[in-house]
Design brief:
Distance between the termini of chain A: 20 Å
Number of helices of chain A: 13
Helix content of chain A: 40-55%
Number of strands of chain A: 8
Largest sheet of chain A: 5 strands, parallel
Oligomer: homodimer
Radius of gyration of chain A: 19 Å
Strand content of chain A: 5-15%
Chain lengths: ~350, ~350
């Protein structure tokens, strides 16, 4: 089985965007109430939105299941206040739940969190619990910079985040560290802000003692770990100068990188440098890069091809990357996939 | 000849730091005047500060000349006002000039700029001219984020920066894009802020039309280009989606990466992916990482070893990386080295 740990619902039906536009318009006209209201989307609209996108690409690329979350760039936690964020988040997560119910063999849910700049992440605990216990989600996306490129929150190793971490450990769900759209003109969203956030989080984890306090806490750093594997010598050297643990020990049970690196040389480096146990297959499909690489004739984000072609690890390790590690990092996926199996046997 | 394009005077004699402390202390006590004053350092102090550091390492590693600039993390453009920045910058650059006069075979100068958040880079033109025309410097370090981690300046492609670019083109000197210390708790200075700035600048250059306005403008993106080479497929794909030029065309005459990547796999990727014409040898020595890699027994930042061992490019291309490209990107180095040659022949 091949499990893609990183997919977003970037093709959600238009009524979701219409609702969001109304919500953000209402912020400019304070006479309108911030009612949550409803988003009317039919099952067929959901099926249509996936059929020629994620489902078609799963079939074409030979992947089985995608761990699926709301569109990351649209989380935009910097817009409005905590109520704005909560209403938007609930609608987005509800829609992911419907996707997973309609296609239980193809998608398993990961939730957006109702973060807001300056508001304690304790405010996210109820929604995480609703998604995991109530809707069978298996993880969350955690935005280390809810300000959208101004970086006003404390580092991820700060106690500010602990209320959320306590709930994550209790529920046994990991977080993917994932920023949203940048509203800072310096940072292109998918070309700079995403990658910088990955690099930033990794260095925060090196310098902090977070995993002493939470030995069972797990993070996926997406986009191949930002710059970390390319600069692995720099990070090993900095860790040594700072009298921190060896990187292999630091990451072992707590930090994982996905394979969202869109060329062979990058994946080759990742798999040559990072222990295979800490790499999870991911493609970010349909995501940041949509085109076909003229140098290969294949989609840039068809990362399975690069992993298949990599020679630095063998088949047993590749099976870990494609499936085993994902099941270990997202343990709740096992029950979901077993239930889907039972359901398809019954059909 | 082997020219290291990236060295900072991180071992400057203590009186420089004492002067800086007095200056920053005076900012807290407004009754003290912001006089520039003097920094008293003897030639022997300068020689001593280099002998067991940069000079010893040059000899041990078999490199010849270092393009040398003030300590990057100490530029701290966010401290004080434009006068603070100017006085500090002048002292730092004067000291680099003395280093280059004392060791003309070993060092060629690159200057710090008197940047200040919110102040036009036009304010840097006089100091650049003083350093280049008056003291034989061959380039400058340009901080894309004078705020020190808050990223409040416009992108490097904005007209805000054009007055400086006009002078750089007139003087035929490049800039290394180099941030300074981070005063944002999210960003470790050398482990996150430096690398993020490199990645950020690269994506700014992809999305902007700067080199249409300044075809002769040249930037070195240090630390191996941040995350860019590792994510080269992502950047090629984003450029394609955004209908921007091919990366190879975009960077050809304008953007160069150094080799400050501290492990073999990283350098192998860099030299496999980026055209050899766009890579300049650099080590950042003595810099961000000071230790010896227990996996190799050699200094992490002894990047010459990695380039020597790389197999994806041949000897002719390595000569470009070690010397030819540096002479092309920093053309004023040729006269400096010729003068040093004449001087050593006379001796």
């Amino acid at each position: 089985m091949i499990i893609d740990c990183h997919g977003h619902y970037t093709t959600a039906p238009e009524p979701l965007n219409v609702w969001r536009k109304q919500q953000t318009d209402a912020l400019k006209a304070p006479t309108l109430s911030p009612a949550k209201g409803g988003v009317t989307i039919s099952d067929d609209q959901i099926r249509d939105s996936l059929e020629n996108a994620q489902l078609k690409l799963q079939r074409a690329r030979g992947t089985d299941v995608t761990i699926f979350s709301p569109r990351a760039s649209a989380m935009a936690h910097h817009i409005g206040d905590a109520t704005t964020s909560l209403h938007w988040t609930e609608h987005c997560n509800d829609l992911i739940h419907r996707v997973c119910e309609l296609h239980p063999d193809n998608f398993v849910g990961v939730c957006q969190l109702p973060q807001t700049p300056g508001v304690s992440p304790a405010n996210c605990v109820a929604e995480l619990e609703r998604c995991v216990r109530g809707m069978g989600f298996i993880g969350c996306n955690l935005n280390p910079d809810p300000s959208g490129g101004h970086w006003t929150a404390p580092p991820l190793t700060d106690r500010f985040w602990y209320p959320l971490y306590e709930k994550m450990v209790e529920l046994d769900v990991p977080a993917m560290v994932h920023v949203s759209a940048s509203c800072n003109a310096n940072f292109h969203t998918t070309g700079a802000h995403y990658i910088n956030a990955d690099t930033t989080a990794f260095m925060q984890f090196i310098t902090g003692d977070l995993f002493k306090d939470f030995p069972a806490l797990r993070f996926i750093i997406p986009h191949g770990g930002g710059a970390a594997p390319y600069h692995w010598g720099r990070y090993r050297g900095l860790a040594q100068d700072l009298k921190r643990p060896l990187l292999a020990d630091l990451i072992r049970s707590n930090i994982f990188f996905d394979t969202c690196v869109y060329h062979q040389a990058g994946i080759d480096l990742l798999l040559r440098i990072v222990p295979a146990e800490n790499v999870l297959f991911g493609s970010e499909m349909v995501g940041a890069v949509r085109g076909i690489d003229p140098e290969t004739g294949h989609y840039f984000d068809d990362t399975k091809r690069y992993v298949d072609a990599a020679t630095s690890i063998g088949e047993a390790e590749k099976r870990k990357v494609f499936e085993g590690n994902v099941r270990r990092v997202f343990p709740r996926i096992n029950a979901r996939l077993a239930a889907a199996d039972v359901r398809s046997v019954r059909l």
